[in-house]
Amino acid sequence: MIKTDKLKIYNSLTRKKEIFEPLQSSKVGIYICGPTVYDYIHIGNMRSFVAFDVIIRYLRYLGYDVKHVQNVTDVDDKMIKRAQKEGTTIKEIAKKYEKIYFDDMKAYNNQLPDINPRATEHIADIISLIKKIVENGYGYVKGGNVYFSIAKFKDYGKLSGVSINQLKAGARVEQDNYDKEHPRDFALWKASKPGEPSWDSPWGNGRPGWHIECSAMSMKYLGETFDIHGGGKDLKFPHHENEIAQSESATGKQFVRYWIHTEFLNIKGEKMAKSLGNFFTAHELLKQNGGKYDAKDLRYFLVSTHYRKPIDFKEEAIEDAKNSRKKLENMVNSVKHALEYEKNTLPVDRELESKIKNLKEKFEAAMNDDFNTPEALRVLFEFSSLLNKYIESPKSGASLKNALTTFLNLSQNVLGLQFESEKTEIPKDVKKLVEEREKARKEKDWNKADKIRDEIRKKGYIIEDKNDKSIVKPV
User: Fold this and answer.
1) Burial 265-289 (b: 16+ CB within 10 A, else e)
2) Distance from C-alpha of 415 to C-alpha of 176, rounded to nearest angstrom
3) What angle is formed at CA 281 by the lines to CA 279 and CA 287, rounded to 5 degrees?
4) pTM (2 decimals)?
5) DSSP string, 205-263
6) What is the C-alpha to C-alpha distance for residues 203 and 250, in angstroms, rounded to an integer?
7) Are residues 322 and 288 in the same domain?
8) Phi-psi region for residue 460, left (φ > 0), alpha (ψ -120 to 50) or beta?
């Protein structure tokens, strides 16, 4: 059962927020452009993958049956150059960096896609799609190469706003030495060159162009029209614009209903990019790989800015994220410790239950507003303040437990935040000492109570006295 019909998504195609209405009432098909596996991804790439992970998590939280497809480009000009540079095969390069990519995805707590198609495994689908484009008059063959004629697709530029008349040869359009009818046209199929991977096709041996791969794989698994297509802002043109042109010229149908694009992660105000040399890989930043950051803190840092706003990669910003996440983590562990001593038999605290419901609705309202994660985090801190106060004056273990469960569902299951759990299981001998101390306190034997406190500390635990009860925590 879907929890809301109020979700609004900013659609890059229409340039406005729209009520989300999937093709099927309870199902969502989403395609995210994955990596070209020739190198490590940088933290700017990870920013985009984390943003879409949150989006997918929230759609599932709302009750949608989400089919998440994310491709791997395992044949590409960059891969050919990398293989030649390292004196190995493209297949080995793809295998190496694909594994690193998925290891990094797991480290940053991103859920893996339901379907992870590779371009080299879908050559037949790609050829079939190109044939349709050519048959429909939008593609042409020149010397074993197949090109898409941009001028014949009247809606070209509807996503990016790029005008065909203003588009100059070489302006972010792939350049090659082939004989095209117009410099703006892009390759659907490239004739083979010595030393490059190739496959047989109706136009001779060759390999697919980059853009056609995503169209073929997305439509194979999600249909000729599907709900959401996403990627970084830099993919809007020419990649996504070309995907629309070739897909819709083949099917005559709308390709994607909602386009979502993430903003850049900047360094010193400039887009982080490999081409600019001003990047850090998502892999090298992590402590387990010799870096200086915990992935849990980096994820918090990435989630703390709305996906459509740029982030500046700064040391102090990551430190702030670390401290903020730690505050929430401390609250979670404090509640867990309190629950060790709280009774579930007390009456439900109706006032607390109402506040929990209110905060949950505020969180959902934030996420329904185009996945506003900064506002959602602000609500989590309201939640944290409430629970910290409740620990000071607990009335019902059942309500406290419900509050913590709700908080963790929103913070962990939706935003993908992670908290380290302190040891909460108190040894029996320590519990016995706590009981003896409580008895001494009731009898106002303060000296004995203090001695027992010291003995408990020697065993690695401290006691915090909260009104009429004592809470034990590891030192």
Assistant:
1) bbbeeebbbeeeebbbbbbebbeeb
2) 43
3) 125
4) 0.89
5) SEEE-HHHHHHHHHHHHH-SSEEEEEEEGGGIIIIIHHHHHHHHHHHSS--EEEEEEEP
6) 18
7) no
8) left
Q: Is residue 340 domain-shared with residue 454, that is, in the same domain?
A: no
pLDDT one-digit tens code per residue, 131-164: 999 999 999 999 999 999 999 999 999 999 998 8
Hey, is 290 helix, strand or coil? coil
What is the rounded distance in angstroms from the CA atom of residue 113 to the CA atom of residue 245? 26
Nearest Cα to Cα of residue 407 among 362, 345, 459, 461: 362
CATH number at residue 91: 3.40.50.620
C-beta separation of 259 from 12 below 8 A: yes
Q: Which domain holds residue 463?
A: 428-474
Which residues, 6 or more positions from 207, have their beta carbon under 8 angstroms from its beta carbon?
75, 189, 190, 192, 196, 197, 198, 199
User: Residue 37: inside a domain, yes or no?
Assistant: yes
Based on the domain organization, do 252 and 158 belong to the same domain?
Answer: yes
Query: Is residue 169 packed enough to be buried (19+ CB in 10 Å), middle (13-18) or exposed (0-12)?
Result: exposed
| CATH number of the domain to which 341 belongs | 1.20.120.640
Please tell me whether residues 362 and 238 are part of one structural domain.
no
Tokens for 85, please give them.
Answer: 């540079």
Structure tokens at 234: 């830099």
Last residue of a domain, one of 414, 437, 455: 414
pLDDT tens digits, 209-261: 999 999 999 999 999 999 999 999 999 999 999 999 999 999 999 999 999 99
Same-domain pairing of 409 and 432: no
Token reading at 2 = 């879907």
| Domains: count for the chain | 3
